[in-house]
Amino acid sequence: MSSHIVGYPRIGPKRELKFALESFWDGKTSVDDLQNVAANLRRSIWKYMANVGIKYIPSNTFSYYDQMLDTTAMLGAVPSRYGWESGEVGFDVYFSMARGNASVPAMEMTKWFDTNYHYIVPELGPHVKFSYASHKAVEEFKEAKALGIDTVPVLIGPMTYLLLSKPAKDVDKSFCLLSLIDKILPVYKEVLADLKSAGARWIQFDEPILVMDLDSNQLQAFSDAYSHMESSLAGLNVLVATYFADVPAEAYKALTSLKCVTGFGFDLVRGLETLDLIKVDFPRGKLLFAGVVDGRNIWANDLSASLKTLQTLEDIVGKEKVVVSTSCSLLHTAVDLVNEIKLDKELKSWLAFAAQKVVEVNALARSFSGIKDEALFASNSMRQASRRSSPRVTNATIKHNVAAVMKSDHRRSAKVNVRLQAQQKKLNLPALPTTTIGSFPQTTELRRIRREFKARKISEIDYVQAIKVEFEKVVKLQEELGIDVLVHGEAERNDMVEYFGEQLSGFAFTSNGWVQSYGSRCVKPPIIYGDVSRPKAMTVFWSSMAQKMTQRPMKGMLTGPVTILNWSFVRNDQPRYETCFQIALAIKDEVKDLEKAGITVIQIDEAALREGLPLRRSEQELYLDWAVHAFRITNCDVLNTTQIHTHMCYSNFNDIINSIINMDADVITIENSRSDEKLLSVFHEGVKYSAGIGPGVYDIHSPRIPSAEEIAERINKMLAVLDSKVLWVNPDCGLKTRNYSEVKSALSNMVDAAKLIRSQLNKS
């Protein structure tokens, strides 16, 4: 009986790691305190998997921020601005790379493939002197071994690490990152030698980059890299794991041709076509780690269906060569369903979080080996049938409305240049108008108020009054700073997706279904279990209240359908685009009501549009077509004078710029500063953007406060490729993760910079 887990959530069932990190960053606790919390979490995870019966238990999947940053530390690839020269990379350098500090900015952060998890992007070049600078992998292996648990140390593979990196700021953008392969392999070899000396028998290389469209040169470099490590891998069993999509035929051939590898891991949930490749040709004598349990969603596995898949694989590779596994790391799902005491019994029976998925893997492995738990399988079949037949899942009217939507293109009646002229007459904004993205700091007091209202410890009247006071504070601050288009700060909502999902039909919410997004940032994705509609207005009351506090335009703040979809646990019993169109129709109703209430600027955030882009180019056009269409549905009927904004952040947008233009928003605010103005390169290349655009002028995920001069320099870079008539000035993202002293200083400098450039424009 062989079972394997690719990786496991590290935040803890009650977000223990999040609170330990934040307390450490705030100087309230010591390094020892942080390390003790982390060690307790790691050990509890290893012990749990061992007790369930998992054979191949991963180690080195625990991280204080993310595994790519861990690999950067392991390779000693620390950018020079952090002042590190040699020795072990400590917490001060590690967290400075992730978050920046008072004197230097953080490294770029972007999405991990098509997930809502983020990683810190390595900055590389020919000048980097790689060295073995973090012994975390071997230390965690020894820690588990001391508990009597033999683990499989997991490393980000050299190909994935290099191809997810970027040339450093002073390096030509055409620099070939793969040219560094011979420089990093010696460090990998040192790590392998260390692990072997510590008694490791297995090593897992995560190479999810293999699911991408790699060319022949890249695939040859992959083959060469593992060939060069062959002598160092001698004496170890080697697993190369891929996940998130099908492995293309050429990559599959390169992977399965490796001589030094013992087993190959495939995602057989999102990579069904890989199964066809396995049927045609799988190397004899190798282990197949079959990822049949979904690591990215929260639905209970259909055990009977998975068992059939495993039996199909048995006919191809032999029973003894099949290892039951998760499709990817369980990092992307919630921790434990046991912690959910408020979900109703029926819905809860349809779900499986990480802890339950470990049990599913083990149950499948036992059944596959001939020890089938008949009661468990019978119960699972009943739960699957219950979900399929439940009346709460399907609504015929909603399905009819979605079918009708697909017959129209949903474009606004006037072109964007006509609309912008009409909006300017009404809004009378200055050149380079300033705004923020939506949220303001979420203080401890604010969280307490929301928590007590939810627990019915304070009345609705008291709650509304408290939120009103917070709105007034935020509005007053923005007016004092001189910001042109205001926001109310979103004091009434803890999370942008959760807030809307709570008011839409077809959604359910967990109490402790937290998932790590990056570092200490955790989100609690809603569960979309049924057809979606809007029973009543969701934001009109609050937006109208805020607009009455000021003569300046006040944004109505909404989350777009694609982002709600991509930041939720989505039902897997119908195409994703159908669910997205249902959400779009609900948001459309809200937009209409905001406009009727006199809100003239409405922001519909699509922060996760790029995140949902399929990893394979052949599938991307279809996704972009329906995703962009869904956004247009939300606002196709508004007046020309109503200004529609959208916002996107922390992804690479250059390759989808034409789809962004096709969204036909009046203004888009978009992350730019943390990625070294990467976005601006697309305009240097000749792309014309005639709508309003606000590339972010400073990174809100870092505590560092940029000066007015630094921001003005950024604005001037933007003006080199964008017309001053369409340029907006704004931060990269919302401000909820910052404190008020940081926000006041940064926004003050931002407004000063905008005024400085305006005066220069007036003189020219």
Automatic annotation (TrEMBL):
Record keywords, A-Z: Amino-acid biosynthesis, Metal-binding, Methionine biosynthesis, Methyltransferase, Transferase, Zinc
One Pfam family in the UniProt entry: Meth_synt_2
Domain of life: Eukaryota
Residues involved in 5-methyltetrahydropteroyltri-L-glutamate binding: 18, 116, 521-522, 567
UniProt-listed InterPro entries: Cbl-indep_Met_Synth_N, Cobalamin-indep_Met_synthase, Met_Synth_C/arc, UROD/MetE-like_sf
HAMAP family referenced in this protein's UniProt entry, alphabetically: Meth_synth
Protein name: 5-methyltetrahydropteroyltriglutamate--homocysteine S-methyltransferase
Binding site for Zn(2+): 647, 649, 671, 733
Molecular function per GO: 5-methyltetrahydropteroyltriglutamate-homocysteine S-methyltransferase activity; metal ion binding; methionine synthase activity
Annotated ranges, domain Cobalamin-independent methionine synthase MetE C-terminal/archaeal: 432-755
Main enzyme class: transferase
Catalytic activity from the UniProt record: 5-methyltetrahydropteroyltri-L-glutamate + L-homocysteine = tetrahydropteroyltri-L-glutamate + L-methionine
Lineage of the species this protein comes from: Eukaryota, Viridiplantae, Streptophyta, Embryophyta, Tracheophyta
Catalytic machinery residues: 701 (proton donor)
GO terms, biological process: methylation
Residues the record lists as binding L-methionine: 437-439, 490, 605
Family to which the UniProt record says this protein belongs: Belongs to the vitamin-B12 independent methionine synthase family.
Cofactor binding notes: Binds 2 Zn(2+) ions per subunit.
EC number assigned by the record: 2.1.1.14
Function: Catalyzes the transfer of a methyl group from 5-methyltetrahydrofolate to homocysteine resulting in methionine formation.
Species name: Eruca vesicaria subsp. sativa
Cofactor requirement: Zn(2+)
